[in-house]
Amino acid sequence: MDASAKTMDTATKSPVMSRKTKEKIGNAITYIFLLLLSLLVLIPFFWMISSSLKQDNQVFSIPMEWIPSKPQWNNFVVIWDQIPLLTFFKNTIFLSVVITIIQVLTSSFAAYGFSKMKFKGRDTLFLAYIGTIAVPWQAYMIPQFIMMREVHLTDTLWSLVLLQAFSAFGVFLMRQFYMSIPEELSEAARVDGLNEYGIYFKIILPLSKPALTTLAVLTFVNTWNDYMGPFIYLNSTEVKTIQLGLRMFVTLYDAQYALIMAASLISIIPIAIVFIFAQRYIIEGIATTGMKG
Amino acid sequence: MMLNTTPKIVTEKQRRRRNNLIAWSFITPNFLGFAIFTLVPVIASFVIAFMKWDAFSAPEFVGFENFKSMIHNQTFWISLWNTVYYTIGTVPLTLIAALLLAILLNKKVRGISTFRAAIFFPYVTSLVAIAVVWNMLFHPDMGLINDFLRWIGIDNPPGWTSSSKWAMPAIIIVSVWRGMGYYMVLYLAGLQSIPRELYEAAKIDGANTWQEFRHVTLPMLAPTTFLVLILLTISSFKVFDLIQVMTMGGPGRATNVLVYLIYNEAFVNYDFGFASAISLVLFIIVLGITIIQFRVQEKNTDF
Question: How far is A142 from chain B (nearest CA, A)?
Answer without folding.
Answer: 7
